[in-house]
C-alpha cells in the first residue's frame, strides 16, 4: 500500500503571487530557503508542516493589481489526523512555489505575546455610564477581559456589564487609599522661607495646592485691576508654566466665577463683622452715569472706628440704579443696604453731594429708618460733601479767568501745530535763555 503524498493544488499566476506575499507577511523564508529548511536533520524541534491551500478566501489588502476587493486563497494547516498519511518531505515531489512553510513560535515570542496581552488598555465606553461609581473607576481591558480599575488603589475588579456595580460600591467603602485625608496624597517639597532675618536662610515644607494658586491669581487681578483676559495671554501662560508646571491655567470665565465667589465670601464675612460691631457708622454715597453705557451706578461705603481705635472702611454696595433716579428710588436703595448690613440702627451720618435729588432723599430715608434710631432725632444725618463744594467754588473762579485761559490755549495750539514752529519756538527760547524744565501736553 503506497502512502499518499501531499501535492499543492495548481493556482493561477495571480494567486501564486498573492500567496507569496502572504508567506512574506507571516515572516517565512522564501522558496529556496524553505527547501533547505525541510531537508535539515531533526534537532528535537518539530519539522515545519507542508501547508495545503484551502478553498476559503480572504481579502488581500496587499494585492494592488487586483484592487482592494480582490480575493485570494487562505492557506490552512493540514489536520493532525492526516499526519499518518504524509510522507517525509524529502521523499515527496518537488515543492511548488505556491506552498507556504511556517515555523512554530519560540518561547520568547510566546512570553512577549503574553506580556502584550497583560498590558492595560483604557477603554472608552460607547455610551455614557450613568452610575456615579464610574467617577472613581475606569474601564480597562486586560487579557481581552473588561476590568474596572480603582482610581485610588489601582485594584482591578470585574468590569463586564453582567457584573453590575454593587461590588464596586462595596470596594469603595473599604478602599484604604480612599479613606486617607486629601493632604496625604499631595507631594511635599522644600522651599526657601520668605522670612529671612540676620542673613540666615531657612528651608520649609511646601505643598502645591491648585485651589490656593487660583485664589492668589484672582486676588492679583483684583488688586492691580488686570483684565480677565490676562489668563489667555500666551506670554503669561508660559511664565506661569515656568514658575510652577503643576499649575493648570484656567480660562477667563472660570477666573471670573472664582472672583465672584471670593467676593461673596468676603462680603458675608464683613456682614457678620458689622453685625457684631457696636460703634456708630458713617455712610458715604455717590452716584454717576457711565458714559459708554448710559446707565446709572451707585457706590455705598461704610466708615467706622473699631475696638482698636483704627479707622475701617467697607464698600457695602456697588449697584446699578434703574431710571428714573428719583429721591424715592435712591432712598429705598440706601435703606435696603443698611438693612442687609445690620446698620439701620447704627447710622451716625450720611454724606452726599449737593444735588437737589439728594436733598429730597434725606427726609424720606429718615422716615424709613425712624427718628428714634438716629442721633438727635436725625438732625446730624445729612452731611454735605465738602470736596464737591470746593469743586464748585473752583469752577466759578475759572469762569472769571475764562478769556485769559482761552488766549493761552490758542497760543499753545499755534506753536505746536507743526514741527517747524516747534523748532522755531525752541530756538527763540534758547536765545532768551529760557530754561525748559518739563514738556507739558496741550490741554
Automatic annotation (TrEMBL):
What InterPro entries does the record tag this protein with? Answer: RNaseH-like_sf, Znf_BED, ZnF_BED_domain_contain, Znf_C2H2_sf
Bias-annotated ranges (Polar residues): 21-41, 65-81
Spell out the residue ranges making up region: Disordered: 1-96
Q: Which UniProt keywords apply?
A: Metal-binding, Transcription, Transcription regulation, Zinc, Zinc-finger
What's the domain of life for this entry? Eukaryota
Occurrences of domain BED-type (ranges): 128-187
Q: Name one GO molecular function term.
A: DNA binding
Q: Report the SMART domains cross-referenced here.
A: ZnF_BED
Q: Which PANTHER family match?
A: ZINC FINGER BED DOMAIN-CONTAINING PROTEIN 4, ZINC FINGER BED DOMAIN-CONTAINING PROTEIN RICESLEEPER 2-LIKE
| The protein, known as | BED-type domain-containing protein
Q: Which organism is it from?
A: Triticum urartu
Amino acid at each position: 500500500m503506497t502512502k499518499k503524498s501531499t501535492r499543492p493544488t495548481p493556482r493561477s499566476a495571480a494567486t501564486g503571487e498573492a500567496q507569496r506575499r502572504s508567506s512574506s507577511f507571516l515572516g517565512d523564508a522564501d522558496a529556496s530557503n524553505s527547501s533547505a529548511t525541510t531537508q535539515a536533520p531533526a534537532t528535537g524541534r518539530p519539522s515545519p508542516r507542508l501547508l495545503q491551500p484551502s478553498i476559503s478566501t480572504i481579502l488581500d489588502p496587499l494585492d494592488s493589481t487586483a484592487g482592494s476587493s480582490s480575493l485570494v486563497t487562505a492557506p490552512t494547516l493540514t489536520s493532525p489526523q492526516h499526519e499518518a498519511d504524509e510522507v517525509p518531505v524529502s521523499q515527496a515531489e518537488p515543492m511548488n512555489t505556491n506552498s507556504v512553510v511556517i515555523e512554530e513560535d519560540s518561547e520568547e515570542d510566546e512570553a512577549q505575546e503574553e506580556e502584550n496581552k497583560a498590558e492595560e488598555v483604557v477603554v472608552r465606553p460607547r455610551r455614557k455610564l450613568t452610575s456615579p461609581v464610574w467617577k472613581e473607576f475606569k474601564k480597562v481591558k486586560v487579557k481581552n477581559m473588561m476590568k474596572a480599575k480603582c482610581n485610588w488603589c489601582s485594584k482591578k475588579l470585574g468590569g463586564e456589564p453582567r457584573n453590575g456595580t454593587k461590588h464596586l460600591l462595596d470596594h469603595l467603602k473599604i478602599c484604604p487609599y480612599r479613606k486617607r485625608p486629601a493632604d496625604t496624597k499631595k507631594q511635599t517639597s522644600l522651599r526657601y522661607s520668605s522670612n529671612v532675618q540676620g542673613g540666615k536662610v531657612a528651608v520649609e515644607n511646601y505643598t502645591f495646592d491648585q485651589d490656593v494658586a487660583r485664589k492668589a491669581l484672582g486676588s492679583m487681578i483684583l488688586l492691580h485691576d488686570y483684565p480677565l483676559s490676562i489668563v489667555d495671554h500666551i506670554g503669561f501662560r508660559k511664565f506661569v508654566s515656568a514658575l510652577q508646571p503643576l499649575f493648570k491655567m484656567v480660562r477667563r470665565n472660570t477666573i471670573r466665577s472664582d472672583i465672584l465667589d471670593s467676593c461673596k465670601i468676603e462680603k458675608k464675612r464683613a456682614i457678620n463683622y458689622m453685625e457684631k460691631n457696636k460703634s456708630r457708622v458713617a455712610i458715604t454715597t455717590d452716584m454717576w452715569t457711565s458714559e459708554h453705557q448710559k446707565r446709572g451706578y451707585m457706590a455705598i461705603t461704610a466708615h467706622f472706628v473699631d475696638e482698636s481705635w483704627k479707622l475701617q472702611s467697607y464698600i457695602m454696595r456697588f449697584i446699578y440704579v434703574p431710571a428714573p433716579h428719583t429721591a424715592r428710588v435712591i432712598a429705598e436703595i440706601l435703606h435696603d443696604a443698611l438693612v442687609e448690613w445690620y446698620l439701620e440702627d447704627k447710622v451716625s451720618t450720611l454724606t452726599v453731594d449737593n444735588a437737589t435729588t439728594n436733598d429730597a432723599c434725606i427726609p424720606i430715608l429718615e422716615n424709613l429708618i425712624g427718628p428714634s434710631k438716629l442721633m438727635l432725632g436725625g438732625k446730624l444725618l445729612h452731611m454735605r460733601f465738602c470736596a464737591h463744594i470746593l469743586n464748585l467754588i473752583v469752577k466759578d473762579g475759572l469762569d472769571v479767568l475764562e478769556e485769559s485761559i482761552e488766549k493761552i490755549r490758542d497760543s499753545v495750539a499755534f506753536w505746536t501745530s507743526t514741527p517747524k514752529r516747534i523748532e522755531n519756538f525752541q530756538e527763540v527760547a534758547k536765545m532768551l535763555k529760557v530754561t525748559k524744565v518739563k514738556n507739558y501736553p496741550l490741554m
